[in-house]
Design brief:
The complex is a heterodimer of chains A (796) and B (165).
Chain A (H helix, E strand, L loop, with lengths): L29 E3 L10 E6 L8 E7 L2 E7 L12 H6 L13 E4 L2 E4 L2 H18 L5 E5 L5 H15 L4 E3 L6 H11 L10 H4 L2 E5 L3 H4 L1 H12 L5 E5 L5 H5 L2 E3 L6 H14 L5 H7 E2 L1 H8 L4 H8 L3 H13 L3 E5 L1 H4 L4 H14 L9 E4 L6 H6 L15 H11 L15 H10 L4 E5 L3 H4 L3 H8 L5 E6 L11 E4 L8 E4 L4 E5 L12 H12 L15 H12 L11 H4 L5 E2 L41 H7 L5 E2 L18 E6 L15 H6 L4 E4 L1 H6 L7 E5 L4 E8 L6 E5 L42 E9 L17
Parallel strand pairs in A: 7-8, 7-15, 9-10, 9-13, 10-11, 12-21, 13-14, 15-16, 16-17, 22-26, 23-25
Antiparallel strand pairs in A: 1-4, 2-3, 3-4, 5-6, 5-17, 18-19, 19-20, 22-27, 24-25, 24-27
Chain B lengths: L3 H27 L4 H27 L15 H13 L4 H33 L3 H34 L2
Classes of the chains: A alpha/beta (796), B mainly alpha (165).
Chain lengths: 796, 165
Amino acid sequence: MDTSADRITDVWGSRTPYGPGTSWPPRTDTHLAAGLGERDVERWVQAASVLHSNGDAMDIAVREGRIVGVRGRAADRVNRGRLGPKDLYGWQANASPDRLTRPLVREEGRLVECDWDTAMNRITARTRELLADRGPGSIGLYTSGQLFLEEYYTLAVLARAGIGTNHLDGNTRLCTATAAEALKETFGCDGQPGSYEDIDHADTVALFGHNMAETQTVLWMRLLDRLEGADPPRLVCVDPRHTPVARRADVHLAPRAGTNVALLNALLHEIIRTGRTDRSYVAAHTVGFDELAAMVEECTPAWAAGICDVPAAQIERAAEIIGSAERLLSTVLQGVYQSHQATAAAVQVNNLHLIRGMLGRPGCGLLQMNGQPSAENTRECGADGDLPGFRNWQNDEHVADLAAVWNVAPQTIPHYAPPTHAMQIFRYAEQGSVRMLWITGTNPAVSLPELSRIRSILAQESLFVIAQDLFLTETAQLADVVLPAATWGEKTGTLTNADRTVHLSEKAVEPPGEARPDLDIFLDFAARMDFRDKDGGPLITWHDPESAFAAWQRCSAGRPCDYTGLSYDRLRGGSGIQWPCTDETPGGTPRLYTDGIGFAHPGTCESYGRDMVTGAGVEPVEYRALNPHGKAMIKAVEYLPPHEDTSAGYPLQLITGRTVYHFHTRTKTARAPELDAAAPDVWAEISPAEASAQGLADGDLVQVTTPRGAIRARLRTTAIRDGMVFLPFHYGYWDTPAGHRPPGDGPGRAANETTVTDWDPVSKQPLFKTGAARLTLVARRANATGARTTTQGSGS
Amino acid sequence: MTGIGTGIVLRLLHDGERDLEQDLLAAAARHRTDHEFHHVALDIARWSREHAARLADAGRDHGLDLPGPRGNPSPGALAALREKASAALGRRPETGLLLLNDLRELHLAVARNSLHWEMLAQAAQAGRDDRLLALVTDCHPQTLRQLRWTNTMIKILAPQLLTGV
């Protein structure tokens, strides 16, 4: 039991050391409202975290109809009872007094309260008008990585087969699109190969752009416990910042932003040069090794050192550790996904595992991580740029199969081009061909790059914007209709974490006022629109979370993400379960690819792949020629210089990231007093050397400027590489006088005022970690206090 | 040994790659607000630049005096103006049709280069010119990637840009 009073300063709690091959000891973390003990709790209701991607299982404490705390579920395979700071304190946001409780519609420029009929009729009237006048391509839907599976699936059906639009994507485009794309490029299909249990077995863990200590605190607790136990794993960390992970690493490589491919090509070069290739694995399970060997032949550590500004000897040392590993676990996150050549770099990590034969065995894991709690569901339900069940839009049999599941004609489902990604949907809205944008559970007016552009798109007269959220976010303030949504603890549904673990999260309390679950809103819309199948029956035949889950199970049957062996009853009481889960594998599947590569066959694969530099699609016939037997594909890529490099006017590299105390745009975390107090305002990080070169000190007010815009922040000097500035991206304007934008014409505080509109051509994930900026002094700090506002956490 | 025809194709291809680089850079500047097109066009203009340089080298083996790529495109006043104009006009629906038009012209220019690479490959094999064959083997795949890119972009954008405005 760990009920330590302050998990703001003690982020990871006490250690429970364990050795390789043994199971991770439980530790139950609890936090209840002040003055309450467990005996005061009337009911405990099962749930799982929605404030990060780790999938930590918990029970919600209920007293007198209100949430009064949380307790980790010791029986769960993911967290064994532990919770991180955001979960221990974040539940308080549910009861925040500024929750939306009634729908709002815009009248004469102002948002005014109304009833549900008024709001929904306005939406259906506009939908019908656009369908009649301009067709389904005039309607776009932009959803989240924070709803439940049942909601995404319903949204995918009503968008693709009801409205018939190709423009449905999630904000998962910003967090996890590269993970999905990298898995598709290498394995032909999405699906996390590894398992969190690989931490229990690994002798080497390599973290690529993954500040696990802050983004997945509980997974980091697991790794810390291995590091404190017998026979600890060796750690390799690639991160330009001296993160808590870097502090524990045997080798820490801190490359220039935008150079991951060069670094990884050098690591691959060394592995091949030193004969660490598993030739029998490569021959049995892969295609493309010769092209990789040729591509990296010239990519020596000395060559990469010149590009990455990392000592060649350190690259050799990292390669030696990875090359001599017998049980290698690699994890990848935003330092790769949101950087230049995102997919190309993530794929090179896959290649490390393929050429070393490190897959499908305990400790030999690959975790292309997610950023959000239900990002995996957005992906598998087809709300994130693919068709549901990892079906391939280029494969007519897959489309026909999906059409049969939905009982519609195949041509009803748009499949003449890949489903439109979020950045392109916004471009179409900018140009005026998308006239309605329904935004659910996300806040693009803070989270997308180049915010002045995003605000101007959302504010366009020609664009009808619907925002469905808990609070009057920056985005909601620009909307034409605002729908109040219920959230975690107020509705029931399932969510799947980064290692394919499915959890049930149940309703514990009533939502405030007239707020409704997202699922109910979608079902209401579909009923009002009277969407029909090809026989005239209702297109959507379900009416609540459990029946929606059953519908999804039918859609997932026979696909890699097969849910047919699961049920709400099976998910109640014990631990979460990893898909695929079928009648043959009722306990779930810890690891994919234990016996070769499963889903890459031309008839099965989710994607035929894309060119790693241009993003051009591979045609089915080419795929069949390249990979007739469905093996893993080793794809080699040349390093390209970043699109925006430093210059005399903008001498610093700019990267944005996150802190352990906040999630996304702080809609919930800033409404939890402990979390808000831990990190109340934006800051800018540079190295002490960089600061002294400019005569700056901790606490000075500085301005960070790029060609897109500027923000002001307090300066914090940290052990980040020289020549780089870091900004946390969480801070927007809802808690400032201007509400949704910077004050007047002055600089704001949202990091995305400064970021560039550029995305990876393969995964379409925006590049938040490859830009150029200058930093200038605005004012010296007033006194000697207040320079540092947080303790452990610094960002990722 | 070199046939007269090989020299003609070398020159045509050299000129074609030289022009393609310029066309890609100009199109990138015209479509500053179609961000993916803009950035990828700049990335793969680099391939054509390298091809033109290597073809100029190869030309010397074949008695040709080819200039290679044009001087480094300076981010001069005209280019800056063009980018500003494209950013200002980027919201207008007609920019979508202009982009499709540019993609079609680029595709045809790349296809022409690709056919010339094909001719050179055949000539190199018939003439047992290993150096020329090695050049084609290095460069032609990148031209084919340029071709797939323009085709993919047209396939993705055409449904919206042709029916949505």
